[in-house]
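Quick one, probably user error.
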């Protein structure tokens, strides 16, 4: 096996499928309802072509960049995804070590299957903390305090999940999420009937606050001094509102197509958001990034950085910490090659004219 490592994310996806029970693979791999947006997140990248420039000295490629004042060796980050113990018994601790070994910023999910404290003490790296707002605000506040005291550098507030999207594979499989140890003593998992749906769905319905609104961004600012990024923005209108609300960054995301089906592919929504934000704060994007060329396309369209969700979980499921690390290394390598072949020596050199979108072709 070690002599025969996968050479791309798709091969890791196949290995993950073989390694995991169907229920767990479906949970990681699947999307909402018709999975139209799930397919589009990837297909839309395929419709953007690159415009390479040659006869540029590319003997030194500098992929380093900066986010919220933190230097990063590359613009590829780890998206928050829940329940890593479904992929590997070491869970988020293994992912955090993998991310740290590549100096990639990891966003730890609120639905982490390992404790915040355990993840923080397992490696020394920049980490952000992703937040869901529960009906019981005390629970969210308690977890923010714990993340703050363990050195997490920013809060990523996920705004696209006032209720859980309909993930039909999970409903059919009666998917059971592992117990989130971070909620020990704060919430009980008992008494959730699973007869007509996934336990995940029942759990979300009882905990997530569907009244989540812009007022809660104010609430969050009032209880924490950490910078706040809003994750799940896909329109210029919400992006402008986010800037007005004083957030530190915007993440163009459709939750890996697990929430609203027929939401736009994130790479298609990116430019609208970038234009609306007009440089006031950094814009990140996630969803469907599977290649270094995808990263280059996102950066050319104005993203400061990209986050990857499923690819890291595929690596984790297939080969544990080493697999998650290899996925990040491969993506970084692919980005380096793509930059060289496009004649981009630095991240700043990845300009809008390096890509041609469908919109450009119509104009
Ligand atoms: C997610 N995502 C997610 N987002 C979030 O804000 N909190 C969470 O707990 C989770 N959990 C989660 C679990 C799994 C299994 C997946 C696949 C995704 C969404 C995630 O942060 C990100 O937006 C997408 O995964 C990006 O799309 P790709 O890279 O998976 O295509």
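Nope, works fine. Designed sequence:
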């Amino acid at each position: 096996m070690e002599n025969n490592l996968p050479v791309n994310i798709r091969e890791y996806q196949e290995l993950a499928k073989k390694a995991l029970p169907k229920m767990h693979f479906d949970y990681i791999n699947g999307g909402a309802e018709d999975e139209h947006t799930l397919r589009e997140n990837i297909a839309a990248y395929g419709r953007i072509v690159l415009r390479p420039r040659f006869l540029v000295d590319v003997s030194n490629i500098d992929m380093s960049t900066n986010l919220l004042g933190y230097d990063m060796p590359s613009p590829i980050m780890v998206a928050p995804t829940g329940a890593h113990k479904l992929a590997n018994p070491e869970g988020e601790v293994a992912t955090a070590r993998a991310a740290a070994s590549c100096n990639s910023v990891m966003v730890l999910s609120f639905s982490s299957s390992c404790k915040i404290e355990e993840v923080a003490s397992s490696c020394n790296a920049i980490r952000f903390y992703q937040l869901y707002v529960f009906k019981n605000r005390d629970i969210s506040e308690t977890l923010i305090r714990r993340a703050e005291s363990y050195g997490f550098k920013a809060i990523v507030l996920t705004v696209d999940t006032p209720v859980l999207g309909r993930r039909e594979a999970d409903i059919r499989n009666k998917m059971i999420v592992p117990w989130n140890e971070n909620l020990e003593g704060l919430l009980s998992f008992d008494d959730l009937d699973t007869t007509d749906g996934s336990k995940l769905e029942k759990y979300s319905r009882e905990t997530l606050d569907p009244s989540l609104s812009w007022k809660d961004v104010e609430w969050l600012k009032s209880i924490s001094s950490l910078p706040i990024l809003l994750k799940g923005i896909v329109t210029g209108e919400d992006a402008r509102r986010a800037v007005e609300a004083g957030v530190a960054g915007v993440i163009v995301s459709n939750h890996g197509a697990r929430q609203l089906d027929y939401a736009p592919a994130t790479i298609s929504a990116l430019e609208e958001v970038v234009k609306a934000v007009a440089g006031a704060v950094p814009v990140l994007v996630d969803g469907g990034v599977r290649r270094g060329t995808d990263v280059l396309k996102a950066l050319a369209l104005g993203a400061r950085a990209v986050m990857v969700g499923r690819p890291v979980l595929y690596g984790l499921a297939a080969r544990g910490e080493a697999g998650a690390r290899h996925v990040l290394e491969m993506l970084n390598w692919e980005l380096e090659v793509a930059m060289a072949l496009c004649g981009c020596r630095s991240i700043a050199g990845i300009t809008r004219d390096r890509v041609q979108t469908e919109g450009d072709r119509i104009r």
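The pocket of FNR is lined by residues 27-28, 41, 79-82, 109-111, 130, 158, 231, 253, 255-256, 258, 286-289, 308-310, 313 (CB under 6 Å).
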